[in-house]
Amino acid sequence: MNDFQLEVRGIGRRFGGLRALHEVSFVVPPGQICAVIGPNGAGKSTLLNILSGVTPPSVGTITLGRRRLDRLPAHRRVVAGMARTFQNLQLFDQLTVLENVMIGAHTRSSSGFVSCLIGSARARRDTASARHTALQLLDRLGLADRAQSLSYGEAKIMEIARAMASEPRILLLDEPLAGLPGSAVERVAQVVLDLNRTGTSIVLVEHNVRIVMQLSHQVVVLSNGELISKGTAQHVQAEPAVIEAYLGEPADVA
């Protein structure tokens, strides 16, 4: 059952003399949403970059099930069952919606460069499979009828679809609600919830704490690079250290 449990143990990161993270540890059981919150500069983005392989940790370990990830490059972590989105959209404007999502599916392709170049039978099968996966995801997420023109909220959903096309066991979401109007916030939040209900574990970095508290099974709170609280939404909201980290404004964590 714990084959795809994420365990983060003693993660730390220094950039020269700056300590960005210090001994951060938490566990995400299979099928849970774990939110990571904290004030600006708390270390949230650094943590997500370390989990996804963009930035190596200075110390600590990351395991997904029985596999250690902290020594793997980012593309190997995708194969191991981890995918992510980015705070700033990383889309290919010259491609259609379908083609953007197919890129995510191709990360699990068995075809090499030469096979793709010569259009081998294996490459054609992989492309057909990627197309089928992408079409299913777009239909499931309500974008099946869109070709290229997307609202900002729809583009956020498309990026989630592209990450899901690699069939991850755990999905890392970097502020998927940032910059969205109210109606789009609710739509993207529902997409996150629906994905989790189908069994995908999620680590969610997000500033919209109201939505975080509604969606999450557990919440990890960072401040100045340190973990100051973790537990259920109800638990962390009552922690004096959390209220202090949010400048003494309980409305921010209510």
Based on the model shown, name its key terms.
39% helix, disordered C terminus, globular, 6-stranded mixed beta sheet, 23% strand, 4-stranded antiparallel beta sheet, alpha/beta, single chain, 10 strands, 254 residues
Fold and architecture overview:
The chain has helices spanning about 45-50, 75-80, 95-105, 115-120, 120-140, 150-165, 180-195, 210-215, 235, 240-245; strands at about 5-15, 20-30, 35, 60-65, 65-70, 80-85, 170-175, 200-205, 220-225, 225-230. It is α/β, with parallel strands linked by helices and about 250 residues long. The strands form two sheets. A six-stranded mixed sheet has the order 6-7-8-3-9-10, with helices on both faces. Strands 2-1-4-5 form a four-stranded antiparallel sheet, with helices on one face. It is globular and about 55 Å long. It starts with 5 loop residues before the first strand and ends in a 9-residue tail after the last helix.
Task: Provide a concise account of the structure shown.
This protein has helices spanning 44-52, 74-80, 97-106, 113-118, 121-140, 152-164, 182-197, 209-215, 233-237, 240-245, and strands spanning 6-15, 18-28, 33-37, 59-64, 67-68, 82-84, 170-174, 201-205, 218-223, 226-231. By secondary structure, it is an alpha/beta fold.
Q: What is the number of beta strands?
A: 10
- Largest sheet, if any? 6 strands, mixed
**Overall average pLDDT:** 86
Q: Provide the structure class.
A: alpha/beta
Q: What is the string of helix and strand elements?
A: EEEHEEHEHHHHEHEHEEHH
Q: Give the uncertain stretches in residue-range form.
A: 249-254
Walk across the major sheet and give the strand order: 6-7-8-3-9-10
| CA-CA gap between termini | 33 Å
The radius of gyration computed from the alpha-carbon positions, rounded to a whole number of angstroms, is: 19 Å
Helix content: 25-40%
Tell me the number of helical segments per DSSP (H or I, 4 or more residues long).
10
Q: Estimate what percentage of residues fall within beta strands.
A: 15-25%
The coarse overall form would be globular
